[in-house]
């Protein structure tokens, strides 16, 4: 949405001459910067005008993306990262083992949170093994986060 609104271009126009050109190019092309600009713009509108005044415009602007987010499956690594971010934690992945000849590798990876292994997965690529490790970690987190049965 930030790219659709050309926020990077607008930042470039506003910051031209203030930030060295090569650094400015790197900044305005960053998805994180453009996303932060959008968040800041919405926050400024909220603070200036209040929720009720901006709600319908924001919902209308994001309507197609809201539906997409509701119906699209997120990959396990992204989902795990989002779940952990809510509690200020981060995940890292470690390759534990690589087996087989180069044309038929099998990777074993661990998902680590605060240095503790919370999931383990294997696959024909490092990405597949990390996805499986993230899926296991999500299952482990759901179990540990669930309220205790009486």
Could you characterize the architecture of this molecule?
With 150 residues, this protein is α+β, with helices and mostly antiparallel strands. It folds into 2 domains: 65 residues, no CATH class; 69 residues, Double Stranded RNA Binding Domain. Helices cover 58% and strands 17% of the residues. The chain is built from 6 helices and 3 strands. The chain has a 3-stranded antiparallel beta sheet. Strand 1 and strand 2 form a beta hairpin. Helix 3 packs antiparallel against helix 4. The chain is extended, with a radius of gyration of 21 Å. 15% of the residues are buried.
Key phrases:
single chain; alpha+beta; Double Stranded RNA Binding Domain
The name CATH uses for the topology of the largest domain is Double Stranded RNA Binding Domain
Q: Order of SSEs, N→C? A: HHHHHEEEH
Radius of gyration: 21 Å
Name of the CATH first level of the largest domain? Alpha Beta
- Helix/strand-derived category reads alpha+beta
Q: How large is the share of residues in beta strands?
A: 15-25%
Based on the coordinates given, report the CATH architecture of the largest domain.
Answer: 2-Layer Sandwich
Outline type:
extended
Biggest pleated-sheet summary: 3 strands, antiparallel
Strand order of the largest sheet: 1-2-3
Q: Unreliable segments (pLDDT under 50, ≥5 consecutive)?
A: 146-150
Q: Provide the helix percentage.
A: 55-70%
Number of helices: 6
Distance between the termini: 46 Å
The total domain count is 2
Number of strands: 3
Mean pLDDT: 87
């Amino acid at each position: 949405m930030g790219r659709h609104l050309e926020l990077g271009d607008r930042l470039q126009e506003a910051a031209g001459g203030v930030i060295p050109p090569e650094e400015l190019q790197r900044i305005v092309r960053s998805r994180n910067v453009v996303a932060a600009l959008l968040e800041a713009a919405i926050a400024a509108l909220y603070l200036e005008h209040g929720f009720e005044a901006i709600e319908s415009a924001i919902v209308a602007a994001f309507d197609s993306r809201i539906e997409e987010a509701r119906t699209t499956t997120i990959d396990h690594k992204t989902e795990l990262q989002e779940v952990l971010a809510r509690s200020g934690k981060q995940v890292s992945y470690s390759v534990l083992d690589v087996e087989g000849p180069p044309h038929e590798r099998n990777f074993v990876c661990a998902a680590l949170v605060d240095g503790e292994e919370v999931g383990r997965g294997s696959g024909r690529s490092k990405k597949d093994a990390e996805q499986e490790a993230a899926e296991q970690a999500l299952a482990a987190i759901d179990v540990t986060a669930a309220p205790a049965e009486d």
